[in-house]
UniProtKB/TrEMBL annotation, chain A:
RNA polymerase sigma factor 70 region 4 type domain residues: 126-175
Domain of life of the organism encoding this protein: Bacteria
PANTHER family (alphabetical): RNA POLYMERASE ECF-TYPE SIGMA FACTO, RNA POLYMERASE SIGMA FACTOR SIGZ
Naturally occurring in which organism (per UniProt): Alloyangia pacifica
Molecular-function GO term, any one: sigma factor activity
Protein name according to UniProt: RNA polymerase sigma-70 factor, ECF subfamily
Matches recorded under InterPro entries: RNA_pol_sigma-70-like (IPR039425), RNA_pol_sigma-70_dom (IPR014284), RNA_pol_sigma70_r2 (IPR007627), RNA_pol_sigma70_r4_t2 (IPR013249), RNA_pol_sigma_r2 (IPR013325), RNA_pol_sigma_r3/r4-like (IPR013324), WH-like_DNA-bd_sf (IPR036388)
Family: Belongs to the sigma-70 factor family. ECF subfamily.
RNA polymerase sigma-70 region domain ranges (all copies): 27-93
TrEMBL record, chain B:
Location in the cell: Cell membrane; Membrane
GO BP terms: regulation of translation
Pfam families named among the record's database cross-references: RskA_C (PF10099)
Keywords: Cell membrane, Membrane, Transmembrane, Transmembrane helix
Chief localisation class: membrane
Superkingdom in the source lineage: Bacteria
Record lineage: Bacteria, Pseudomonadati, Pseudomonadota, Alphaproteobacteria, Rhodobacterales
Any one GO CC term of the record: plasma membrane
Organism name: Alloyangia pacifica
Bilayer disposition of the protein: Single-pass membrane protein
Protein known as: Regulator of SigK
Residue intervals of the Anti-sigma K factor RskA C-terminal domain: 98-221
Gene3D superfamilies hit by this protein: Anti-sigma factor, zinc-finger domain
Amino acid sequence: MASSPHPDIEDLIARVAMADRAAFARLYERTSAKLFGVCLRVLQDRAQAEEALQDTYVKVWNNAGKYRVNGYSPMTWLITLARNSAVDRRRRSDVGRAVQPLELDDRLADPAPGPAQQAEARDDAQALALCMDELPPDRAEMVRRAYLEGATYAELATATGVKLNTVRTWLRRSLISLRECLSR
Amino acid sequence: MSAEPQPDLPGGAEATAAEYVLGLLTEAERRDFEAQLAADPGLEQEVASWCACFAALTDPIPESVPPASVWSGIETRLHGPARPGLLRQLLPYLLGAVTAAAIAWAAMVSGLLNTGGTGPDLYADLVAGEQGLELLAHYAPDSGTFMVRRDAGDYPPDRALEIWLLSDAEQAPVSLGVVQPEGLTSIPLDRAVAAQLGGATIALSEEPPGGSPTGLPTGPVIALGQLAER
């Protein structure tokens, strides 16, 4: 994510791995607003998002030593921890929550050269946004719900009114299209 | 692909890696996938790149500053409840032990008198409990030398131990040097580095022979200590 100064955050994580509490405070100061935004988006509830943010930084403190070996950019690592903490809470706390209907449309993916090929994508986020636009809107919405809301296949099946295995096939195809677009 | 949930599903291992990152696999599928992941670095890479791809979906999400209670909650969960303020800790002593206070004052004054010129000698114990290793680190300002002495235990036979300086949160750890396997380790320090030592934390990490290849700690940190006067 272009907005975050990566080398600094990487250094801070290296120091957190050495139990440096001052570096941990600095890392929190730099990254918590972003990660709190992510938790709020997933949980749609402030109290729950605050809990998820605490879970996230407890994991950061406990797992910072493993960060260096697994080859993630620092913000990807932090966002993944935050998203997963929030999704864990969401799935635990609102089993049987009401599912927002997801309207299907029959528009096919745009096979013409998309904006992704025309414009030089400035960064990952922009490239992804362009490739998401190449998916049919309902499929892009499924991908978004799966990641940003932690929607399960059962929930996506309820939301769309199609069978679970059909939803699964659609989502897997969409993900592969997304990757193909991103690698172009 | 043996870890494929159902052979008729499209997308192969690449799509399964995405489902894993999204948390969409069934329990049994997830276990199979993780077993395969442990054995296949290519699959690990696949997972990492899906994480990066999905993380970019959060780019349009506005930032939101969390309330201060979140940070104090994290501190409490990790390090226990905050200690009472310094004054409250000291109050019993201030009220009761006038003599003790007088002695402390005398010690402080003499301590202050000693700090002229080159600054005080600094010491830190580095105890690696798991390895049964005890080291004493000592900075002698008159010679500008940082020394490490082994007091108990043995050095690991095929690993180097490296000393790191953690002076403040703005800066990456600075390597002070690798501990010599035989005898006293003696490392001459630049004045700029030496100036950061007072009160700083030092860490001992296990590294490949010769020390960290990256300039940052790569192995586990086995001991931490704080440099202080004695």
